[in-house]
Write a structure and sequence with these properties.
Strands 1, 2, 3, 4, 8, 9, 10, 11 and 13 form a nine-stranded mixed beta sheet that branches. Strands 5-12 form a two-stranded parallel sheet. A two-stranded antiparallel sheet has the order 6-7. Helix 2 (about 35-50) links the parallel strand 1 (about 25-30) and strand 2 (about 55-60). The protein has about 350 residues and is of the alpha/beta class. It is globular, with a radius of gyration of 23 Å. Helix 2 packs across helix 12 and helix 5 (about 125-135) crosses helix 7 (about 175-190). It has helices at about 5-20, 35-50, 60-70, 90-95, 125-135, 155, 175-190, 195-200, 230-235, 245-250, 270-275, 295-305, 310, 315-320, 325-340, and strands spanning about 25-30, 55-60, 80, 100-115, 125, 135-140, 145, 165-170, 220-225, 240-245, 255-260, 260, 280-290. Helices cover about 40% and strands about 15% of the residues. The longest helix has 19 residues, at about 5-20. The protein has two domains: about 5-110 and about 280-345, D-Maltodextrin-Binding Protein, domain 2, CATH 3.40.190.10; about 110-280, Periplasmic binding protein-like II (D-Maltodextrin-Binding Protein, domain 2, 3-Layer(aba) Sandwich).
Length: about 350
């Protein structure tokens, strides 16, 4: 090997080492619901520091956890945004891949909204009616499960309008969909004999019916990717359709869309923060603490995100739809995040 070639090889190796051991730009993946809030923090970081604006990719919570837990090297994400809490099996995958120091940050509350064009009349539905409209299998008159035959809301219940059922919602990779399935489908069907009796008949063969949550795939429910803005656009164009997404997207488009009453409760910041609105949840991000020493921008980004300027009652994120945590809870979370308290599998489900 010539001296020139040897020098080039050493220089290339040094550059690769620097790239793998230090990085200025934060890498973030995850929830489409948390995306606008994280983007606002990223923009403020860019405006107020010398750090480059973070890379934020809206993958959905489920896919985000897979990427986050893939490994500990600097080619993997530093932070995951999530519209649901990390699951135990996801935590175990992280541990298996050497990620053992993770901190959980709760940033606020959100409601999952069942919305429509504001050109329609107000719509009110129960959680049971919504579950029956969207499930792949429903009971017939003899309490036997059949493929969902309902094409119009009035077929689900006579009190509902004679209007086509058409729903645009999140894909399987979405934390919003996970939460929707938990609160609407699983919670409804675990108390209905048609599902539980089938599960009890053969618990191995009919395991899926213990907490049934399969969504129909006959064109009534349309998965619309991880960009909730696409669902908003569909509702504006298709007046009969409904959409499922986070509250901030309703707040941002209140001149075009209206929410639906669920069990008699209209989604508002007050009913969501109190838990009165049935489909309420917390929003999160998770920190890969092992990356912080090599990605110095993380410390400032996290401080900024947890500051009153961003997540406080009159903060920037509140103005774009984030529902603020109660002051005591917010202060408790801020302390936990500042100390980088490690997530324990015991608090996960």
């Amino acid at each position: 090997m010539t001296i020139k070639k040897a020098s080039f090889t050493l220089l290339s190796s040094a550059l690769i080492t620097i790239n793998l051991n230090a990085r200025d730009q934060i890498k973030i993946v995850g929830s489409s619901t948390v995306y606008p809030f994280a983007s606002a923090v990223a923009k403020k970081l860019d405006e107020t520091t010398n750090y480059p604006i973070p890379i934020i990719i809206s993958t959905g919570s489920g896919e985000g956890y897979k990427l986050f837990c893939k490994g500990n090297n600097l080619n993997t994400p530093d932070i995951i945004n999530a519209s649901r809490r990390m699951k135990k099996e996801e935590f175990r995958i992280c541990e298996k891949n050497g990620i053992t120091n993770i901190t959980e940050a709760i940033i606020g509350f959100d409601g999952i909204i069942f919305a429509q064009s504001n050109e329609n009349k107000p719509f009110s539905i129960t959680t049971k009616q919504l579950a029956l409209a969207i499930a792949a299998e429903v009971p017939n008159k003899n309490d036997k499960l059949i493929k969902n035959p309902y094409k119009r809301w009035s077929q689900v219940h006579p009190s509902l309008p004679n209007r086509e059922i058409l729903i645009y919602g999140p894909p399987k990779s979405s934390g919003t969909r996970d939460t929707f399935e938990d609160i609407i489908l699983k919670a409804t069907f675990k108390n209905m004999n048609s599902y539980i009796s089938l599960y009890n008949k053969d618990k191995n063969r009919y395991k899926a019916y213990k907490e049934y949550h399969k969504i129909r795939q006959d064109g009534v429910y349309i998965s619309s990717g991880e960009d909730d803005n696409i669902i908003v656009e569909k509702l504006i164009k298709m007046k009969n359709a409904f959409g499922i997404f986070g509250y901030s997207f309703l707040a941002k488009n209140k001149d075009k869309l209206i929410g639906t009453k669920i069990d008699g409760i209209m989604p508002t910041s007050k009913t969501i923060s109190s838990g009165e609105y049935p489909i309420s949840r917390s929003l999160y991000f998770y920190i890969k603490n092992s990356h912080e020493k090599d990605v110095p921008a993380m410390k400032k980004y996290i401080e900024l995100f947890m500051s009153d300027k961003m997540t406080g009652g009159k903060g920037i994120l509140n103005k774009i739809g984030l529902i603020t945590l109660p002051k005591n809870k917010r202060e408790s979370v801020k302390v936990s995040v500042k100390k980088r308290v490690k997530v324990s599998i015991d608090i996960l489900k």
